[in-house]
What we know:
The protein is of the alpha+beta class. About 20% of the residues lie in helices and about 35% in strands. The strands form four sheets. Strands 1, 2, 3, 4, 7, 10, 11, 12, 13 and 14 form a ten-stranded mixed beta sheet that branches.
Amino acid sequence: MTPFGVLNINKPGGMTSRRVVDRVAKIVRPVKAGHAGTLDPLATGVLVVCVGAATRLMSRVQEQPKRYQARFVLGKRSNTDDIEGDVVDVPHATHITRELVNELLPKFTGTIAQVPPQFSAVHIDGHRAYKLARRGEHVEIKPRCVDVFRIVLTRFEFPELELDIECGSGTYIRAIGRDLGNELGCGAVMTSLVRARVGPYRLESAAALDQVTSETLDDIILPPTSIIPDLARYTCTADEIEYVRRGRSIDLDESLAVGREDAVALLTPTGELASLAEYDPPTRRLLPKQVFLSQV
């Protein structure tokens, strides 16, 4: 059967997310593979890799809330905002207390304006910021709004601290450390980062990269329905599946509670994801928008 699903991989440190995907791609060829949210080489933890037609659902994974465990060292700054850049000591950095850090953390929760790091994947005039930074160019990156749901100081032994952070898409954890260090007047750089969760995908259930082989793939790959646990689901009849296969609408089941803006996951009689459909209130029909049947 053609691979169609999700791999929850514990990315090793020192490896790019692209390299992880390349390893998976060799196993699942000729179908595609892609990750749903980059982790820097320094970072470890949950890297969600979508396989086959599930790559068309990557944006839904990227929109999911995330949880990180990050370590920082105070009294330093770097051009990358982490320990892997050009690190300099901040002269006369004052001694910081746990109480002072806790007083400042509420500034970094809620919807906040955050300037991404110079070494980041944001686009500046058609170029990635990190590529410009590698050429020694300093560019102005506009702040963007990100959502930080929770920050907890889990360890503090000056000059080191650890934060547990839950946030939305697009949040740069090293930028939180950088800005916290600036508020403290002493600077800060990130020394380690673990992504503990992306939506329903958790670190404790992630597979080591070396465990992902052609022999183990069927046991490790998760169904694409795991990407959309909150969507209403409807199991089609064999006749309805033929309509969906051709992109034709089907009647809404009266027992299905669907809002005007909700998508509905249409399943085959055996439970595989056939399509994501849109509800059309005037006709009370479900209109297939993304059809995956060719991959099932």
